[in-house]
Amino acid sequence: MNSQYPSHLLDEAVGQFAKLPGIGRKTALRLVLHLLRQEKSDVDAFANAISAVRNDIKYCHICHNISDTDTCDICADEKRNRAQVCVVENVRDVMAIESTRQYNGLYHVLGGVISPMDGIGPDDLNIDSLEDKVASGKASEVILALSTTMEGDTTNFYIYKRIARYGVPITTIARGVAVGDELEYADEVTLGRSLVNRIPFDQTLRVNAY
Amino acid sequence: MNSQYPSHLLDEAVGQFAKLPGIGRKTALRLVLHLLRQEKSDVDAFANAISAVRNDIKYCHICHNISDTDTCDICADEKRNRAQVCVVENVRDVMAIESTRQYNGLYHVLGGVISPMDGIGPDDLNIDSLEDKVASGKASEVILALSTTMEGDTTNFYIYKRIARYGVPITTIARGVAVGDELEYADEVTLGRSLVNRIPFDQTLRVNAY
After folding, report:
1. What is the interface pTM, i.e. ipTM, of the complex?
2. Going residue by residue through chain B (210 aa), what tens digit of pLDDT does each one get?
3. How many residue pairs from chains A and B have C-beta atoms closer than 8 A?
């Protein structure tokens, strides 16, 4: 299939783009042809940004989130509750939770979830440092906020087994019918969980979500 | 919105990806996070391929198609009919026509179509060199194979006006109901054109398309 391209430079660039998730060879070719129409300086800036983000990016030494500094802005913020630790998969989840403005603790970014299919085991994730954090006795609550997938549930359970013995309260975010969703369209597992884990009504009055 | 990212390197890389057509900031972030999980050498190879394709790619001096050499493989092929010139928009159209194995002439790649909305005028396209080719008297037929869009039709007409006076036969690819399509689902313009431009039935027997 590669020999269909009239240039090995084109072939190489298309091949590299096609390695990205969700991008096939047709889309890759479209993207490369787009770049060929841009100024050389703009394309170099694109290439440099890609190299720089991989080579020079830092991770916060406390929460492992992406950061420009050794300690990220969240971990450095004295106003936040340093005893609460919310365990998430990656920076996107940190951004999603931050955007709710409902959480004032710190994070712990695992860098993924346990996924034998993808060759990702516990040793590939930031779990040792989470255990250290809990073992040091500084955490008053660990909130597990991973995706409700098989991998997320497996990781939740693995972390639970590792840190439960330190006696720190471990919670997980509520699963239920999404705000704004109609009951009849909720899947039965979600609806079932939202019934089993129902909460006192007056508790909902305290949330100032909007 | 930029300040949502916890790192300016991340922000820059996401911003660069989001400039690509069809890629929004959410997808861009997903792609950058994917790259952060790859080996540094692989990401550098990706960045280098992008720089290289823009900086080092050559265009055939005869047909303007992307090439690794001054003369592309098609133009250098002595077995091809050098008097036939098929005018196409870009390398993707060359590849599409080549894959039919129904054409044995040369190409002329315009590098785009006239599109005032995008600021692309005739001077931005390889039209002067097409006129030179026709004026030199070496072409026996010019085949216009641009997209059936307003921009494609405009460009067809502009080229026609530029080269008609040289008396070379100018043809355009047939428009009609696609092979394998049912009549009732064809749009009326296409069906109408296929009726107006009907051809002798025995002519279809000569085509060994599959």
Report:
1. 0.79
2. 345 788 999 999 999 999 999 999 999 999 999 999 899 999 999 999 999 999 999 999 999 999 988 999 999 999 999 999 999 999 999 998 988 888 999 999 999 999 999 899 999 999 999 999 999 988 999 999 998 888 999 999 999 999 999 999 999 888 888 877 787 888 888 888 888 888 777 776 665 544
3. 164
Of B182, B186, B191, B90, which is closest to residue B145 (Cα–Cα)? B90
| A110 secondary structure, DSSP code | -
Q: How far is B133 from chain A (nearest CA, A)?
A: 22
Long-range contacts of A113-116 (CB under 8 A, 24+ apart): A113/A89, A113/A146, A113/A147, A113/A149, A113/A151, A113/A152, A113/A154, A113/A155, A114/A151, A114/A154, A114/A155, A114/A158, A115/A151
Exposed/middle/buried for residue A35 (C-beta within 10 Å: 0-12, 13-18, 19+): buried
Partner residue facing A51 (CB), from B44, B98, B112:
B44
Could you tell me the sign of the dihedral formed by the alpha carbons of A56, A57, A58, A64, in that order?
Answer: negative
Interchain pair A50, B50: CB under 8 A: yes
Put simply, the answer to whether A6 touches B68 (Cβ < 8 Å) is: yes
> What is the value of pTM for the model shown?
0.77
Q: Which of A37, A49, A54 sits opposite B40 (nearest CB)?
A: A54
Helices within chain A (DSSP H only): 8-18, 25-36, 40-56, 73-76, 91-100, 128-135, 150-163, 188-196, 201-204
- CB B10 to CB A91 under 8 A? yes
Q: How far is CA A170 from the centre of its chain?
A: 19
Q: Which of A22, A40, A91 is nearest residue B54 as measured by Cβ atoms?
A: A40
What pLDDT is recorded for position B207?
56
Partners of B172 in the beta sheet?
Answer: B144
| Nearest neighbour of B43 by CB, restricted to A23, A54, A74 | A54
Which H or E run contains B48? helix B40-56
Task: Tell me the chain A residues in contact with residue B36 when contact means C-beta distances shorter than 8 Å.
Answer: 53-54, 57, 66
The amino acid sitting at A33 is L
